[in-house]
Amino acid sequence: MHIPDGYLSPQTYLPLWGVMLPIWGKASRVLKTSLQARHVPLFAMSAAFSFVIMMFNVPTFGGTTGHATGAALIAILLGPWAAILAVSAALIIQALLFGDGGITALGANCFNIAVVIPLVGSFIYRRLTLAVPLDSRRRVTASGLAGYLAVNVSALLAAIELGIQPWIAHNSQGQPLYCPFPLNVTVAAMATSHLLLFGWVEALITSGVVLYLQRSDRSLLALTEAQAEPR
Q: Minimal CA–CA distance to 65: which of 137, 146, 3?
């Protein structure tokens, strides 16, 4: 889902940069009051975890890639605001040091991956696990479903951003100036790859870690129980 430079027009990437700046500010303010000092190492490890698994990119059609993100898992463990900053940090490092995702498209990539996946994943997980014991297998199922649906919503948004480029940015002859693929191509490509493959990878990673924590350190699943909703 890393969109490279040259595929999004300024009409698309500038507004998404504008959206991300206040979100990063809000996330920073929330974490200053909610993230305890003893959980800072977990936050850092979460960012590193997201960075590593997002490096395993598989090229897909429409000028983008598919991969797992770990964003839903981080949101389940530390809350969506922590996940926004952790995954954004991973995406920024990937773009600046490894050329994985464009600099101009960084706002779009952060919105699609670091904002949408944590918010959607956290919302689904919390709704499905209200008043559910920490050791319940329902949490494992809910986390897998949250990861699967969240990454597919993210992929759909990326596909739409790419697919509208021929419509909003073209020359006088109607030739696309940025992404040349229309919506029917980008949506089909992204939906197919994520519904059939990458969504399941995200689900397995998310539910697998939740199952492991149920058996090894259940307290980590209770870190955000008191702040289930984004503020």
A: 3
CB neighbour burial string for 81-113, b if at least 16 within 10 angstroms, e if fewer: bbbbbbbbbbbbebbeeeebbbebbbbbbbbbb
The C-alpha atoms of residue 75 and residue 221 are separated, in whole angstroms, by 11
**Rg value, the chain, Cα:** 18
* b/e sequence 150-174, b meaning 16+ C-beta within 10 Å: bbbbbbbbbbebbbbbbeebeeeee
Do the Cβ atoms of 47 and 87 come closer than 8 Å?
yes
> Are the beta carbons of 153 and 116 closer than 8 angstroms?
yes
Quick: pLDDT tens for 123-168. 999 999 998 999 999 999 999 999 999 999 999 999 999 999 999 9
As separate numbers, helices (DSSP H) first and strands (DSSP E) second, the chain gives 10, 2
Write out pLDDT tens, residues 165-179: 999 999 989 899 999
Q: pLDDT band at 39, cuts 50/70/90?
A: confident
Residue-wise pLDDT for 65-110, tens only, equals 678 899 999 999 999 999 999 999 999 999 999 988 899 999 999 9
Integer CA distances (angstroms), 132 to 98, 128, 222, in order: 42, 8, 11
DSSP 222: G
Max CA pair span of the chain: 62
Question: Residue 108's closest CA among 157, 145, 176?
Answer: 157
Does pTM top 0.70 for this prediction? yes
Cα–Cα distance for residue pair 24/32, rounded to 1 Å? 12
